[in-house]
Amino acid sequence: MRRVTALATAAATLATLGLSALGGPAAPSAYAATGEVRVSDGCVSSVPEPGESDAVEICYSLFRPAGATRKRPVPMIVHSHGWGGSRTTDPASFETFLDAGYGVLSFDQRGWGESGGHAHVENPAFEGHDVRRLVRLVSRLGWVQQDRPGDPRLGAIGGSYGGGYQFLGAFESLRTKGRPVFDALAPQITWNDLSSSLAPEGVVRTEWALLLAAASVPADALPQNVYKALLEGAALGEWPDGSVPGTEDMASFMRKNGPAWHVSKGRRLDIPVLLGQGTTDGLFPLQEGLENWRTALTPKARRQSIFVGYNGGHVLPAVLPMGVSITSDPCSKALAGGSFEQLSLRFFDEQLRGQDTGLGGYGRLHIATPTDECLTTRAERPNRSIEIGTVASSTAAGLPLATEIAAGPFTVAGSAYLTADVTAVGVENRAFYGLAVGTSPANARLVQNNVLPLREPLPVVGEKRRIPLPAVGVDVPAGQSLYLLASPISETFVGMSSRTPGVIVLEDTVVHLRRLVARRP
User: Could you report the per-residue pLDDT of 325-345, keeping only the tens digit for each?
Assistant: First the structure.
């Protein structure tokens, strides 16, 4: 009972943060007129849950815009919700797309809303079938534009869990049919590899793991083994992989649940994608989007795609180490004159309708800074290496320590990492590293709230390591410096600090980052 109460409290916190918005067909019911938009609700039958024989119903709301007929078919935009949410039933929420003459289908994912079953977290064997059944439904609507039998003209929108289904649907069609039935995607704040997002280096993002579990309690959305695994992770201090007898194996459960698995099988998407990722996102950070850009798309697709990093996403206060608090999207404004939704509409007009809207920025990454600027680059991998010597951090307890990397003015945008010779005594020693900016080590703040862990399960002396750092976009002004921040603890990874007190020492430390001249889109 105590666990359920704690999770329910965390669920209320999640709702307060507004993070749920992050996520043979049955005949639809009779159309109900809402202005000039016709709305219908229905469900399709999909594959049963494990060990069951009854089909799972996946429910949807369908919005037919004014003027859409068999003689004047329109493209369709598919939408789904974030974790803990449900489909959108109000046509006013899709006014931007409906007024532009797009049809919209919004659906409850398995385990959520009116749909049945449990959430398998975008598993091809379950949610993959669900998306394919919905595509089949759309392919039989006479007022929807069809490229060929069974292949409607499709775009997709949604954030977080509502971005995960987009990659799943496109990759599953590529796997089963040899081509992605979706013609363009616009996923936001979603993941590349779910295990590495929830537990980088096997160290659990405790706050987010508990919040995601809490959001599942009211709907009983998750299989019981997943709840158990999340509690095991918090108790054991590492992502359960079944190596401890009697524990769950989350590594296997989530192995196929993201673009990383499809890429490992040699699949890449050859369609245009508008990627939106939160720079201050503490659950699916900027690096997850950059990995999708770099690995999940073909070179041709990247030339037809746009990456936007904005200040926002799955955000909780960053106090230890201290971060920044900003919500803004300067890059969408620079590219399209407004919001990410307005950018999405112009992107779909070009990619689904072949219209020339004058949209620029293709083939580039546009990343917001904490000072509300937009930095643009064609590549995200590091191009500069800076030696900073010895970096020491206590473990288990203590304050963050900052080591100067370089004095401003300069800009950084993209991926970053360290190379160093690591010495750590004790068992399960951990420290957390991130990039920070300030006028001195005493007031340096994390660039965009994130840190990543170094984990040494056993004692090591002078072992060479490559240590990932959070990807960033930052304009370091004159009079300030970029620092490497090393901390023994992190509130995002609460309870995940070292199991034995001691010191982690990095020697011959080199910071690798992408340094560039500031550009505007």
Answer: 889 999 999 999 999 999 999
